[in-house]
Amino acid sequence: MVFGYVFGSAIQVPGGGDYREFLMPGLFAMVATNGIMPTMVGAARDIGRGVTDRLRSMPVSRTGLLLGQTLADLLVSLVVLALLALVGLAAGWRARHGAAGALEAFALLLLFRFVMTWVGTLLGLLVGKEEAAGQLSVVVFPLAMLTNAYVPTGGMPG
Fold first, then answer.
1. Is 11 exposed, middle or buried (0-12, 13-18, 19+ CB in 10 A)?
2. Angle at the Cα of 83 from the Cα atoms of 40 and 116, rounded to 5 degrees
3. Confidence class of residue 111 from pLDDT cuts 50, 70 and 90?
4. Helical H runs in 58-158?
5. pLDDT in tens, 7-46
6. 20 to 30 Å CA-CA from 127: which of 17, 44, 112, 135?
7. pTM of this structure
């Protein structure tokens, strides 16, 4: 809402059009990209607290914990993307190519989010400490902001 209504009047959309319709795909992609952070911290926490070591001593699948975390994140992502779509609809965003095209786009976003959670899991396992993973999250967040959906890239430094 802040981007759409506060900053929206200051940004010219390439080719004309409504800024809120231009903004929403960028917000959807940012939500999908930010899947790295909570998964990275969760994986590092499990390593640091010994949860992974305890599960290794049990007769469970080695990928069960990791797959469970990523699938749970995918479910949360589905809810978050649905809520974001509802807010976008209330703000004036519309899926211009029909429901089937919108569902395909959301499926692609969820697939991208699933990949990002695996990247977050890998980084969390490599870092191994919850505090370090939390600090690394500060580096990951700005990467999702590097887009012309929020501010014109012409004013950004080279």
1. middle
2. 25
3. very high
4. 64-91, 98-127, 130-144
5. 555 566 666 666 777 778 888 888 888 878 888 888 888 8
6. 112
7. 0.78
> Alpha carbon 122 to chain centroid distance?
16
Tally the C-alpha atoms within 13 A of residue 114's C-alpha that lie toward its C-beta.
13
Would you say 69 and 121 are in contact if contact means Cβ atoms under 8 Å apart? yes
Minimal CA–CA distance to 66: which of 125, 19, 23? 125
Cα separation, 142 vs 26, whole angstroms:
13
Rounded CA gap, 70 and 39, in Å?
A: 8
Q: Tokens at residue 74, please?
A: 């995918």
What the block records as the tokens of 56 is 């290794």
Using an 8 Å Cβ cutoff, are 86 and 31 in contact? no
